[in-house]
User: What shape does this take?
Amino acid sequence: MTILIPAYEPNEKLIALIKDLKNEDLEEKNCRILVVNDGSGEKYEHIFDKVREENIEVLVHEVNKGKGEAMKTGFAHIKDSSDYTAPVVTADCDGQHRPKDIMAVAKASGENPSHLILGCRHFVAKDGEEYVVPLRNRLGNLFTVSLFRVATGMRVSDTQTGLRGFSEDMLPWLLSVGGSRFEYEQKMLLETKAAGFPVFEIPIDTVYDKENYSSHYRPVADSIRVVKPILKYFTASFASFIIDYILVLVFDMYFSLFTSVVAARVISASANFTMNKFLVFNDTKKKTGASLIKYAVLAVAMVFASYGLLYLFRDMLSIPLALAKPIADVILFCASYWIQRRYIFF
Assistant: This one.
């Protein structure tokens, strides 16, 4: 197996982690460590010299490209080299992952091939204990976990963990996932189900140093970057909802409810397809015709679903159309995202 550590401007904790890992009898377990220097610069070269003194190979980015690119560089090197074997475990360089947890993820990955293994931290304080996770990290994880669940329907307790395990057959897919910085790990989670790789979680210790300055995760900027794929979908869908909402109310003054729903949905769906294909899912590789046909089938299904829900709410439950419309669209919004991500723009 291989332990891959992307590192940007690391401190002595990287050296301590490597020494602690080497105490885990790596040779007997046929395990090697690979470090990627993500453009840290000359100031940190002495750290990487110490890494090399431990007989650890260091791959180098001349400039900072981001954690995602550092991970891809490592994955590609492992895939193309006979010196490294799977499973592959990624770990952060700042000492937040204990060697025993890294080895536990490696074991779980070996026992569960074709699964994305997540080493998940505890974000809830135990009885009688103080929080060990900083507030910014708890809020950031709550934010991303909630959005992730809404977008995919999947329950993941720690979307930001850097401790992950992968089997050999997953390497080509990992190299195809978009993203160059912290959002790469979020996109990986978003696409894992469509790629056919279930998620398997194992609990790990939560380690935080109050004086840890080695973390380069920016709580606001990087949280936005991490959830950007979901936020873009929300934005495109909200814009389409506004178009659809206004048109239904206008058309309803002149036509039947069914005609109004159909006409409004055709117009808003055309706009939504264009935004989703080119702005949200970046689906530029496949021909438009293939995804358009699938989307058209979905759009037709959503028309009838929308009509059914509006008929239920307005005509059977006597809910005003102005209120029934957004309720129905929230339900269809979640269903549509999952279907598009799973079957259309994957």
Observations:
- The mean pLDDT is 83.
- The longest strand covers residues 32-38.
